[in-house]
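Might I ask for a little of your time on a matter of protein folding? Here, with my thanks, is the record as I have it:
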Amino acid sequence: MTRFYALVSLLLVCLGAAADDDKDTESSLSGQEMAECLKTAVSGASREMTIEDLREICRTLGQNQSQEEQSVLDAVQALSGDEQDDSEEEQEENDPSGASRLMEKRLNMEALNRANRFLLTPHRRNYLLPVSYQDERNTAPYAEAGSPLADLMSTEVEFQLSVKILIRESILGDNGHLYMAYTNYSLFQAYDREASRPFRETNHQPELILSFVNDWKIFGFRNVLNEVILNHQSNGQDGSLSRSWDRIMLSTVFERGPFAFSLTPWYRIPEDEGDGPDDPTGDDNPDIEKYMGHFELSAAYKRNDQIVSLMVRNNLESDNRGAVELGWSFPVSSTVRGYFRYFNGYGHSLIDYDYHTNAVGLGITFTDLF
């Protein structure tokens, strides 16, 4: 565990040190292209958005297109031996539009979609990992329940679907947006033909989110988002396989150039002890905080359209229980990105909340962090 936390600390330092070194390629739209984009954008914009907000969104969309074109030019320059030496720090200083603000881009895009009731806004990462491997499986809960899942394969399919919808907009002046969100995280024994390819675990996570955008600065970082969240998480099982808990969470998000991080502490809403695991009114997992911790720290760094992410959970106690997750996403096409994920610790899923897991997966993500 000492090496584990040393790795986490080193990565955080590296991400922080590199935060000033990156800058997205600034795009340029012609007057006609900007006008066409504004016509489309205004039909779905939320009521508090300004013309400049819509222009920034259009610049972002143009930038995404220009990045694909730039990758082709970069390849040609590499073959011809030409090199381009731009000062990324100077580009950021000369960028009054704030094009390098990663979270602001995402928030603007979400604001554009808020008024469109035919769209579901992505919440957490949406991804599919056709190959997810664990060196040792947690078979004990299934064996105790007499489930055929006591004989698990080490390789399975892992995926997550996460969306949110706007319930009420601008509760406090032009700020304070109320969302309802839902995240489905599933582990699918797709390669176990003898057991008829069962879903061994599905975690359901509905949330009620009160979100506030912000522009406060400290130590060069901008606080761009703050949220109050009512969170329920359950695996939908009964008896001894049932796992669930309810939390009140506070989340704050900061960014600086290509680097963003969030801190999310929580308070678990107490449950009655009940009369054992078969009592549906009792607490299925009274010791879950010892393993899942009391907070989550996440960080992400974007460079050359690749995103490296880190998640850390800890219970702030001497036994050093918690988890770390490393992610890397990279462009594959205009609609999907490659995604590599490594998880080490407790809480890979709710059924494994008290089991130490090493898991590695490779696949694609449909909606990324930003």
